Amino acid sequence: MTALDRAHNIEDLRRLAKRRLPQAMFDYIDGGAEDEGTMRGNRDAFCEVSLIPRQLVDVSKVDPKTTAFGCDIDLPFMIAPTGMSAMFHPDAERGVARAAGRSGTLYSLSTMGSTSIEDVAASSSGSKAFQIYAFRDRALTSEFIERARSARYDALILTVDVPVAGNRERDLRNGMTLPPALGLMGILDIARHWRWSLDYVRAPRMTLANVAHRIAEANADISTLSGYIANQFSSSMTWDDARSIAEEWGGPLAIKGVLHPDDARRAVDAGASAVVVSNHGGRQLDGAIASMDALPGIVDAIGDRCEVFLDGGIRRGSDIVKAIALGAKACFVGRPYLYGLGAAGEAGVEEALTILASETRRVMALMGATALGDLDRTCLSHRTLAASSHQRGE
């Protein structure tokens, strides 16, 4: 029986990843901005919502299928875009995309990925989205759009909550850069994690595959890649830029990083077909509202005009069920699959997806829900609201 066989939930995979990865790599997955209050708040928000099951329903068949970006997916959760997967395991983005395809869900490739748009497209026949920023170099943004179109990606995800990089203090303490350039303590830590070290030595040189050619054109050293990306983030992006990208792409487009109902309305007006309610996993603005807390207001504002997805804090199938009941069409998961990747590569990712899928089906059955359409707000009780109502004598 392997360690992966003994992983019964996402927290078990997290512990395995912590054991296998050097501290800097693990903290890059596990950490958030500043005091990490928003990151913790994303988890706490799910704990404030309780499920109200219905009984004596025939749940011998439970169907968690849904659609996203016009694609049929077998599960109500998708792979969120995350950067530099090769830092955690040489299977990297290709392995994650393959695991997502076998699980019947959609994979999202990050602009900051260590595998190119084209190589990921060739690795899996499953549904795929490409995540993009509005860069200072608009020619680079246009290049990405055309490459995603040529590689037949199903959707584009425009991330809008990075006008400047968040203050991730764990990474600063670890001397973390993209690609990794670690100091003496980091090197000693890597030596203690010999399995990861062997993989790192054997793997091709790590790079930000989708922008490496731009660095080469500028005759810049690979160590400047992270600086190049940081300088490309635009702090002057507006809704006009989002509209321009939507028009240039011309296909399904999600705007990710929306927390305010007015911004959700503007996203739809700008041409978005979907909105991702997200605070970047607590990695940008510490003190921001939890994604789950922001979800109801955004669903009420635009839920009948476009798809609404939730991102942030999901660790259990019950979290996914709660988000669906609040009005999300589906969810994105990031850290859960990265823990699996860090623990055991592609097999670990598949295990993470299997765990979440099994939990989701089980919770649906225990809720008396045979399909996602059976889940709505009558299935939920919010502790804070319930306490307030009790105090008012309602």
UniProtKB/TrEMBL annotation:
One Pfam family, short name: FMN_dh
CDD domains to which the protein is assigned, alphabetical: alpha_hydroxyacid_oxid_FMN (cd02809)
UniProt superkingdom: Bacteria
Gene3D superfamilies the UniProt entry points to: Aldolase class I (3.20.20.70)
Record-linked InterPro entries: Aldolase_TIM (IPR013785), Alpha-hydoxy_acid_DH_FMN (IPR012133), FMN-dep_DH (IPR000262), FMN_HAD (IPR037396), FMN_hydac_DH_AS (IPR008259)
Keyword Mitochondrion among record annotations: no
Gene Ontology biological process terms from the UniProt entry: aerobic respiration
Gene Ontology molecular function terms on file: FMN binding; L-lactate dehydrogenase (NAD+) activity
Cofactor(s) this protein requires: FMN
Keyword terms of this UniProt record: Flavoprotein, FMN, Oxidoreductase
GO cellular component: plasma membrane
Keyword Oxidoreductase belongs to the record: yes
UniProt family annotation: Belongs to the FMN-dependent alpha-hydroxy acid dehydrogenase family.
Name the UniProt record assigns to this protein: Uncharacterized protein
Organism taxonomic ancestry: Bacteria, Pseudomonadati, Pseudomonadota, Alphaproteobacteria, Sphingomonadales
